[in-house]
Amino acid sequence: MLASSSEQTGSDSTPLVSIIILNWNGAACLPRCILAVQSQTYPNYEAIIIDNASSDHSADDLESAWGTEQGKNPRWRLVRLEQNLGFAAANNLGARLAQGRWLALLNNDAFPEPDWLASLIQAARTRPEYAFFSSRLVQARRPELLDGAGDVYHTSGLAWPRMRGQPLESAPQQPDEVFSPCAAAALYDREAFLRVGGFDETYVSHHEDVDLGFRLRLDDLRCLYVPDAIVAHLGSASYGIESDHTVYQVQRNLIWTYLKNMPGGLLWKYLPAHLAANLFHLVYYSLRGQAGAVWRAKWDAVQDLPAVLRKRRTVQSQRKVSAAQMARAFEHGLLSPYLLGRRGAALKKRLHLR
Fold it and tell me: What does R_g of the chain's alpha carbons equal in angstroms?
């Protein structure tokens, strides 16, 4: 329990961290997430559960069952929304309500190990040149496999979790720089998060963490992968892996991210790769029987270009780094985005690649 305002503020070595747990119909996983947070060894945190108008009663009785009742345990707060605001807007609300020096975002299907928060804060304290931090995500259903070690951004505008699906022992054992974190379990400097505008709420969900990471990098901030910050992640517990909803959101939002954030000449330099990636996915998802979702995503992305270009003018006017600096943060391999997952394995075999 947070006993005093001085404890809430904390010191340089134990700053207050605001853990934002976003919940939508998470009855199957939210209790485990809350237990994992309550088991954290780092002492100085507040936890804010944002319930996005769940219909499965997953937020019912949290006050009594999990100690979130006002006045009983002020370390925990429950905010129940009357409508589903989406991932981006709900997390932004949590960030505005937060009192901490740091924001730790945690999905309801992400289950951190006890030293997760302590490891992230230790990295923040000892590596002040970094302003946001990535966890090591492990697949909850197959804990011998990685779910991601930070996110990669490709010159085509595609992004993916680094090393997803690879054996756990292959994960980097030392902290290293990555483009951005997966927001399922990430730590952000709250002031920086708010300064760049938080998540773009028009995204609703998916790719919004990559977009935020891009804007933080344009603000001359960097992201560190912290291997000791380990989190088991179910992944896509709300929407499903590559459901029509997910395909639509990702395929629309990746266009917006590229057009809004890619600096000056790089936008034109990498545009052929961006167009090729979009064409590839139009064909790929159409052949998978998801033509409606992917074509609608691309059409809606184009329809909203005037608004996206207005945002671009704002983002680029506030950019603090050069195009050359940003280019060094990207993945440049021509085939890199297409050598991932099952389709990548088939392509590698066809091309006789390891």
Answer: 20
